[in-house]
Specification:
It contains four helices and 42 strands. It is an all-beta fold. It has a single domain, classed as TonB-dependent receptor, beta-barrel domain (Maltoporin, Chain A), CATH 2.40.170. The protein has a 22-stranded antiparallel beta barrel. A five-stranded mixed sheet has the order 3-8-9-6-7. A four-stranded antiparallel sheet has the order 17-16-41-40.
Length: 751
Amino acid sequence: MGFSMVSNKAGFKLLGCVATSALMCSVNANAQSAGDVSGRAQSSVADTSADEGVIVVNAQKRAQNVQDVGITINAFSAATLENAGIKDATQLTQLTPALNLSGSYGGQVLSFAIRGVTQQDFSAQAEGPVAVYLDDGYMALNNSAGVGLFDLDHVEVLKGPQGTLFGRNATGGLVNIVTRKPSDVADGYATISYGSYNEARAEAAVGGPIADGIAFRLAGAVSTNGAYIKNLSPTGGDLGGGHGYALRGHLNFKMSPDATLLLSGYASKSYSSWAPYYVFASTSVADANGIEQNTVEVPGPTGAGSPVTAGGSRQVISNYAQDSGGSNSLKGGTAKLTLNIGPELTLLTDYKDAETRFLIDAEGASSFFNGDTRSRVRNFSQEARLFGRNDGWRWYAGAYYLHINAQVDPNRSPFPAFGSIVDDYNKLITDSYSAFGQIEIDLAPQVTLVAGARVTREIKDFDYRAEVFSSDLTAVPIADLGPARTPYSGHRADWLYNGKAQLEYRPAQGLLFYAGWSRGSKAGNFTSPYAGSTTFPDSALSYKPETLNAYEVGTKADLLGRVIQLDASGFYYDYKNYQSFQFVGLSSLVVNRPAQTYGGELMLNVRPAEGLTMSGGASFTHNNIKDVPVGGVVKDRIAPFTSKWQALASVAYTWNALGGKVTANANGHYTGPFYFSVSNFSTTHVAGYTTLDLRLSWADVGDMWKLSVFGTNVTQEKYRTVGFDLTGLCGCTQVGYGRPRWLGASVTRNF
């Protein structure tokens, strides 16, 4: 596991500049030369091909040339990510059209959103509809977008439902992180870097054979950075700083030509300040009947008396927020046994244990409302799958079991001004059983039919209670005053059905057309009332499964000997029972509504001259959730964290100089306007913004030494990322901002 949230600070993580020549080769994984499905798709761990620009991915549970997979994929090799300075998964949004982040706690809790498929619920028992996998193991924690990245093989972003082969909550797609595995060649590296706000980071890895048929790989990283948000309150601390570490080890046993066992273990922990939130004053706008229609920003102070701090000045006035207290840890292990018994049999056992603590001073300087949430999520999974190939067809079959124990203990909401505390406790036990299969049939030399299905039975048991305590001004509980809400227990048992049917046409080498239907699903769940809220009755706490029927067409083309690489796709999503989360005041609820989304993506990669690469891409996403009730008004709304337009452009040039090679890179990324709440109120609207990253690197002839200087967000763009409308609670809205300009330098030694 990488630095799980070593860098979980406000907003997008812009630790290093992107846009290198490797980025140009793989910024869209749909731009590689096509390979023969049956000839190139070997069942082995994916690797980066020596052929420039060709990435081999595991998008269909076997190694394939990415250009030969009929899925919209953005894949990034280890070289791409290293040269781009990508250190955590949140930065993938800078390289990938139609990929957004949703989140809370000023950006310390982050999840992925793809093409309008998102989940904003911040409680630990709520899983997102965009799955994150680490070395074949599913990550149940909803803060999965904060995964740190180091010593990688590659990362894949798969768009559209992946419910047949991956299954688990891959309604909108998934992010598949593949770390570097042991090899028979001894090698390693060490990197140190220093940057703005006293950021220091070191990472290293070493691996190779230790005995006949046994190889290892060890990797680790440590990181620290100072605060970049000044707290003007004499009783508060500066925000945005943190430190942490991550360790990972692999041990590979080649027991025979037909049997391999890979054992993996990891541990990471990070420490952070309180959530770096800013506030602005807001008020409700009602019609003549007193029904709320909107909330809007107004001049300060807030309704709770707090000064306004939003505006991107990197200064807050927060009496309670401190420079430490937050933490995030993850540990676990994976065992993967691969046997060739005619077909290839894979047995995978995975365990993850995540613990988090996040703190907020929600409304700023006043003592109206604070928050302290402690969670633990443990998940265990077991998968058995078969992959076989015959003349003209290939097939999969398998079974999967997942157990999740998610607990919030407690979610503490102190109200110092009122001398009281509300502690929420909840526990969700999930057991999921599924069987799946998929087949690929070559109907003709140029035409392939892909069909698959998965059936899942998912059982959930949920318990919730809330207690009110008297307290002193330091928010220490004194006496239990009784329940804030009647305890609640719920049980759900859902059947889920996923499927896929697709035709693929390869009229020539390097050219693929595909068209198909896929169905993804996500089980029903329970909403955890916030701070003992009684706004909604018990009957509203359970919500239904959601299903997504997706129709997509696309093409992947390599032209003029791969001088030009062009990829395009279009999609239409028909959502049934979309799980729409809303948080107003201290009330949280998920309602099921129908939704439709359509759009498209385009990527172009050009190599006009030796050493020069140019790349550009864009995405368009139109989303509509029907008849969503908010504030007494029922109308169509747009899913949160869904930008209608996104675009990126990159240029890289490499030339011989100084006894080695110098590479200059520039990468720009535009994110269009979006809302951070399904209410679509004015206070939740985020303006579009553009960031620019620059990087200059030198490597010696043998690629043993590499020196880099970089800057992210070099134009000092001030942009909002996450937030919550608390107008009804404190006459305020809290927002998080992306990181400011960040400069740095690094030195790498390979051996």
